[in-house]
Amino acid sequence: MSEYERDLYIIYGKEGISEDEKEAVDAYWSLDGEDSKKFLCYVSAAEGRYGLEAGTLSKLVKENYWVTGRYSAFFCVVCGERTFVSSRAEYLRIKKNSKCIECKNREERERVGLEELRLVEELRVQRKFEEEQLQADYSVNDLSYMESIFIFLWLSDKNLSRDVKQIISKESTETITGITELDDQMISQLVAKGVVLVLDGRVKLKDEISCPYDFLEISQEVFLKVSKQYSSAYDLCDKLHEIFCSGNITITDIDEISFAIKSVRLNNLYSVVDWLEKDRRIVIKRNIKLDSLLQDLSSRYSLAKCTYVMFYNAKAVASDIHTNIRSSVVQPHLFTKFTGGYLKRGDEMNLTVRYTKVVPYSVETSVFEALVCDTFFDTEYNWFSLSPKEVLSKWVGVMNVSEENV
Ligand SMILES: [Zn+2]
């Protein structure tokens, strides 16, 4: 008798068992002494040895005997109850996963129940999407000034022929305004207004849906709805351009315009950071400290003055690294530290920056700046020579600001 067998208890469920039958059942449950997952003999061999008809031993065992044991596998991991098995297959199953049959069945019922609930919820979300989001229309009057610019920029850059699928891939570096942060903000606002639809896997644009709209794909799962009020995307595009040029805005539009201007400038400053790293051969750590430093700097001066401040401090970092031994952990933080200190000293001494430095070629104007400058400024480089506050007042200064949307 093997170690394992000693730990198995065979319970005989009927009276008057013959010696042969008992031995056949023992043979059926004989385990390999080395490996508790292996049985010593084939069922057919045991049948032959004890004179049983072929194919009857498994049935006999199943109907009349139960086996349990000392192993932890014989106790259900869920309810803790002792488990009984009546076939080799069941024995091997509980060795792998010691759940009693009741617990196993209950979990299966629960899983099926949850799956049904999930399907019902999926259907509900899809129906809501089809009935509400797909059917609702919008007009350009529902859009804020910046949202109009955003959609205009997107449409004007595209071939609006109906047979061409309009795609700006999420993976590509292409942006609509030229500034990722601004794109994200505009898309999330337009999603909230139902103008842009995001198919996040929970809802689908099924072919069979009868839908009164055309959709233009912004990126793989982001679609711009074309309003029923305009006969084509060209019409919509023209209307948006008209709104942009009219310069009619409300007081609430000013916040969005200000956010856009700040995002543009921050984007410019990050391009300066990229350039400084190459030009001065230093490493500048991108983190929240750098971000708030750049925001502070950009709120104070024109891009040309910011470039001067950043260049001056990057030069100081390069010379510091050259003369002092700085660890590779400290080095990337020096630029933020030096520039922060520079601004602080200036504040304490009540000094302001008078110098400018030519903005490097790698700092490009975004399509958004180009569009605004083309219509409202003399040249796009004027934007560079102004601080964000000055850009705002120059731009808003020539627009018609009203209290609210008429
Ligand atoms: Zn159980």
What can you see in these coordinates?
- 53% of the residues lie in helices and 7% in strands.
- It has 16 helices and seven strands.
- The longest helix is centred in the N-terminal third of the chain and has 33 residues, at 101-133.
- Zinc ion is lined by residues 76, 78-79, 81, 99-100, 102-103.
Q: Layout of helices and strands, plus pairs?
A:
Layout lengths: L2 H4 L1 E5 L6 H10 L14 H7 L7 H8 E5 L18 H9 L4 H33 L11 H12 L23 H13 L3 E3 L15 E6 L2 E5 L6 H14 L1 E3 H30 L7 H13 L2 H21 L10 H15 L18 H10 L3 H5 L3 H10 L2 E3 L4
Parallel strand pairs: 6-7
Antiparallel strand pairs: 1-2, 3-5, 4-5
Helix pairs in contact: 2-3, 7-9, 10-11, 10-12, 10-16, 11-13, 12-13
Bound molecules: zinc ion.
Question: What characteristics describe this protein?
Answer:
406 residues; three-stranded antiparallel β-sheet; two-stranded antiparallel sheet; 16 helices; mainly alpha; 3 domains; 7% strand; binds zinc ion
Give me a quick take on this structure:
The chain has 406 residues and is mostly helical. It has helices at 3-6, 19-28, 43-49, 57-64, 88-96, 101-133, 145-156, 180-192, 233-246, 251-280, 288-300, 303-323, 334-348, 367-376, 380-384, 388-397, and strands at 8-12, 65-69, 196-198, 214-219, 222-226, 248-250, 400-402.
